[in-house]
Design goal:
Arc Repressor Mutant, subunit A, ROS/MUCR_sf, DNA binding, zinc ion binding, two-stranded antiparallel sheet
Protein backbone atom coordinates (compact mmCIF):
# COMPACT_ATOMS: atom_id res chain seq x y z
CA UNK A 1 0.00 0.00 0.00
CA UNK A 2 1.41 3.39 -1.00
CA UNK A 3 1.85 6.36 1.34
CA UNK A 4 -0.94 8.23 -0.44
CA UNK A 5 -3.33 5.29 -0.01
CA UNK A 6 -2.48 4.99 3.69
CA UNK A 7 -2.98 8.73 4.18
CA UNK A 8 -6.38 8.59 2.50
CA UNK A 9 -7.46 5.74 4.79
CA UNK A 10 -6.32 7.67 7.88
CA UNK A 11 -8.14 10.84 6.82
CA UNK A 12 -11.34 8.91 6.07
CA UNK A 13 -11.20 7.18 9.47
CA UNK A 14 -10.39 10.39 11.38
CA UNK A 15 -12.45 13.30 9.93
CA UNK A 16 -11.27 15.83 12.51
CA UNK A 17 -7.56 15.07 12.13
CA UNK A 18 -5.22 17.79 10.86
CA UNK A 19 -3.00 17.13 7.83
CA UNK A 20 0.22 17.25 9.89
CA UNK A 21 -1.11 14.72 12.42
CA UNK A 22 -2.31 12.52 9.57
CA UNK A 23 1.17 12.57 8.05
CA UNK A 24 2.69 11.51 11.39
CA UNK A 25 0.24 8.62 11.64
CA UNK A 26 1.10 7.67 8.07
CA UNK A 27 4.78 7.43 9.00
CA UNK A 28 3.95 5.23 11.99
CA UNK A 29 1.74 2.99 9.89
CA UNK A 30 4.46 2.53 7.26
CA UNK A 31 7.00 1.66 9.96
CA UNK A 32 4.59 -0.87 11.48
CA UNK A 33 3.91 -2.45 8.09
CA UNK A 34 7.62 -2.71 7.32
CA UNK A 35 8.31 -4.37 10.66
CA UNK A 36 5.44 -6.81 10.20
CA UNK A 37 6.65 -7.78 6.73
CA UNK A 38 10.16 -8.32 8.06
CA UNK A 39 8.89 -10.49 10.93
CA UNK A 40 6.82 -12.59 8.53
CA UNK A 41 9.78 -12.99 6.18
CA UNK A 42 11.87 -14.31 9.09
CA UNK A 43 9.06 -16.56 10.24
CA UNK A 44 8.66 -14.60 13.45
CA UNK A 45 4.93 -14.25 14.07
CA UNK A 46 5.33 -13.16 17.67
CA UNK A 47 4.27 -16.50 19.17
CA UNK A 48 6.13 -19.61 20.24
CA UNK A 49 5.75 -22.94 18.48
CA UNK A 50 3.16 -24.10 21.00
CA UNK A 51 1.24 -20.82 20.73
CA UNK A 52 1.51 -20.10 24.47
CA UNK A 53 3.88 -17.18 24.48
CA UNK A 54 6.20 -14.93 22.52
CA UNK A 55 8.88 -16.56 20.47
CA UNK A 56 12.52 -16.00 21.30
CA UNK A 57 14.27 -13.60 18.96
CA UNK A 58 16.77 -15.47 16.84
CA UNK A 59 19.89 -13.94 15.39
CA UNK A 60 20.52 -14.71 11.76
CA UNK A 61 24.26 -14.85 12.28
CA UNK A 62 25.18 -12.30 9.61
CA UNK A 63 28.71 -12.19 11.02
CA UNK A 64 29.16 -8.40 10.95
CA UNK A 65 30.64 -6.45 13.83
CA UNK A 66 31.04 -2.71 14.36
CA UNK A 67 34.59 -3.07 13.14
CA UNK A 68 33.14 -3.73 9.66
CA UNK A 69 31.37 -0.37 9.50
CA UNK A 70 32.78 1.98 6.86
CA UNK A 71 31.50 5.17 8.49
CA UNK A 72 30.14 6.50 11.72
CA UNK A 73 26.41 5.55 11.96
CA UNK A 74 25.68 8.90 13.61
CA UNK A 75 26.88 10.76 10.50
CA UNK A 76 25.48 8.23 8.03
CA UNK A 77 21.97 9.68 8.19
CA UNK A 78 22.99 13.34 7.94
CA UNK A 79 22.90 15.67 4.94
CA UNK A 80 21.08 15.05 1.67
CA UNK A 81 21.89 11.33 1.26
CA UNK A 82 21.91 8.35 3.59
CA UNK A 83 25.19 6.41 3.62
CA UNK A 84 25.23 2.64 4.02
CA UNK A 85 27.66 1.90 6.86
CA UNK A 86 28.61 -1.47 5.37
CA UNK A 87 29.70 -0.31 1.91
CA UNK A 88 29.81 3.49 2.02
CA UNK A 89 27.38 3.94 -0.88
CA UNK A 90 24.86 6.75 -0.68
CA UNK A 91 21.10 6.47 -1.25
CA UNK A 92 17.90 8.39 -0.71
CA UNK A 93 16.84 5.43 1.45
CA UNK A 94 18.89 2.45 2.56
CA UNK A 95 16.44 -0.17 1.39
CA UNK A 96 15.75 -3.71 2.44
CA UNK A 97 16.68 -5.11 -1.01
CA UNK A 98 20.08 -3.38 -0.87
CA UNK A 99 20.86 -4.72 2.59
CA UNK A 100 19.69 -8.22 1.67
CA UNK A 101 21.31 -8.51 -1.76
CA UNK A 102 24.54 -6.65 -1.05
CA UNK A 103 25.19 -7.57 2.56
CA UNK A 104 22.89 -10.46 3.49
CA UNK A 105 21.46 -8.57 6.42
CA UNK A 106 17.95 -7.43 7.35
CA UNK A 107 17.02 -3.82 8.18
CA UNK A 108 16.39 -4.84 11.80
CA UNK A 109 19.84 -6.42 12.07
CA UNK A 110 21.40 -3.41 10.37
CA UNK A 111 19.75 -1.02 12.85
CA UNK A 112 20.95 -3.13 15.75
CA UNK A 113 24.47 -3.29 14.33
CA UNK A 114 24.62 0.48 13.87
CA UNK A 115 23.06 1.22 17.24
CA UNK A 116 19.90 2.75 15.79
CA UNK A 117 16.53 2.51 17.49
CA UNK A 118 14.13 -0.15 16.10
CA UNK A 119 11.95 2.61 14.61
CA UNK A 120 14.78 4.60 12.99
CA UNK A 121 14.04 5.28 9.35
CA UNK A 122 17.06 4.62 7.14
CA UNK A 123 16.96 8.01 5.46
CA UNK A 124 18.06 11.53 6.27
CA UNK A 125 15.76 14.07 7.86
CA UNK A 126 16.19 16.25 4.77
CA UNK A 127 14.85 13.52 2.49
CA UNK A 128 12.04 12.68 4.91
CA UNK A 129 10.93 16.32 4.83
CA UNK A 130 11.11 16.37 1.04
CA UNK A 131 8.82 13.36 0.88
CA UNK A 132 6.39 14.93 3.33
CA UNK A 133 6.30 18.14 1.27
CA UNK A 134 5.73 16.17 -1.91
CA UNK A 135 2.92 14.27 -0.26
CA UNK A 136 1.33 17.57 0.80
CA UNK A 137 1.76 18.89 -2.74
CA UNK A 138 -0.18 15.94 -4.16
CA UNK A 139 -3.05 16.81 -1.79
CA UNK A 140 -4.46 13.27 -1.55
CA UNK A 141 -7.03 14.45 1.01
CA UNK A 142 -8.84 16.15 -1.86
CA UNK A 143 -9.76 12.66 -3.10
CA UNK A 144 -11.49 11.74 0.17
CA UNK A 145 -15.27 11.75 0.57
CA UNK A 146 -14.96 14.13 3.52
CA UNK A 147 -13.23 16.75 1.35
CA UNK A 148 -15.67 16.31 -1.53
CA UNK A 149 -18.68 16.63 0.80
CA UNK A 150 -17.22 19.79 2.33
CA UNK A 151 -16.66 21.33 -1.10
CA UNK A 152 -20.21 20.43 -2.17
CA UNK A 153 -21.68 22.07 0.96
CA UNK A 154 -19.62 25.24 0.45
CA UNK A 155 -20.62 25.42 -3.22
CA UNK A 156 -24.30 25.03 -2.30
CA UNK A 157 -24.00 27.78 0.33
CA UNK A 158 -22.37 30.14 -2.18
CA UNK A 159 -25.09 29.42 -4.74
CA UNK A 160 -27.85 30.06 -2.20
CA UNK A 161 -26.25 33.34 -1.16
CA UNK A 162 -25.91 34.43 -4.79
CA UNK A 163 -29.58 33.66 -5.50
CA UNK A 164 -30.68 35.61 -2.43
CA UNK A 165 -28.73 38.67 -3.60
CA UNK A 166 -30.20 38.37 -7.11
CA UNK A 167 -33.74 38.25 -5.70
CA UNK A 168 -33.16 41.37 -3.61
CA UNK A 169 -31.80 43.30 -6.60
CA UNK A 170 -34.70 42.14 -8.82
CA UNK A 171 -37.29 43.22 -6.25
CA UNK A 172 -35.69 46.66 -5.98
CA UNK A 173 -35.81 47.16 -9.75
CA UNK A 174 -39.45 46.02 -10.15
CA UNK A 175 -40.85 48.33 -7.46
CA UNK A 176 -41.94 51.69 -9.12
CA UNK A 177 -40.65 54.82 -7.50
CA UNK A 178 -43.22 57.54 -6.65
CA UNK A 179 -42.53 61.05 -7.94
CA UNK A 180 -42.42 63.39 -4.96
CA UNK A 181 -45.20 66.01 -4.94
CA UNK A 182 -44.41 69.67 -4.55
CA UNK A 183 -45.40 70.95 -1.12
CA UNK A 184 -48.49 73.16 -0.92
CA UNK A 185 -47.79 76.85 -0.38
CA UNK A 186 -49.46 78.60 2.50
CA UNK A 187 -48.67 82.07 1.07
CA UNK A 188 -51.68 84.39 0.59
CA UNK A 189 -52.29 86.34 -2.68
CA UNK A 190 -50.40 89.58 -2.85
CA UNK A 191 -52.47 92.84 -2.79
CA UNK A 192 -51.88 95.69 -5.24
CA UNK A 193 -51.05 99.21 -4.22
CA UNK A 194 -54.72 99.99 -3.51
CA UNK A 195 -55.05 97.13 -1.14
CA UNK A 196 -57.31 95.12 -3.47
CA UNK A 197 -56.10 91.52 -3.99
CA UNK A 198 -55.33 90.61 -7.58
CA UNK A 199 -57.51 88.09 -9.37
CA UNK A 200 -56.09 85.79 -12.01
CA UNK A 201 -58.16 84.96 -15.09
CA UNK A 202 -58.19 81.56 -16.74
CA UNK A 203 -55.05 82.40 -18.66
CA UNK A 204 -53.15 83.23 -15.53
CA UNK A 205 -53.11 87.02 -16.12
CA UNK A 206 -53.65 89.17 -13.09
CA UNK A 207 -56.53 91.70 -13.06
CA UNK A 208 -57.71 94.05 -10.44
CA UNK A 209 -60.73 93.04 -8.51
CA UNK A 210 -63.17 96.06 -8.50
Amino acid sequence: MSEVAILKVILEANPGLSIDDALKLTDKAIKSLSKTKADIAKGNTGASDDGNGPADKKMSGHGYTQADLKCNPVNALQGDKATCCLCGKQFDIITKPHLRESHGITPEEYRNLCGYSPTQRLMTETYRQQRANKLKGNEPWKQTNRWKDKQAREAAAREAASQAVDEIVTDDKSTPMETPKAPKSDAKPQANASGTPEKKDDKGDSTLKL
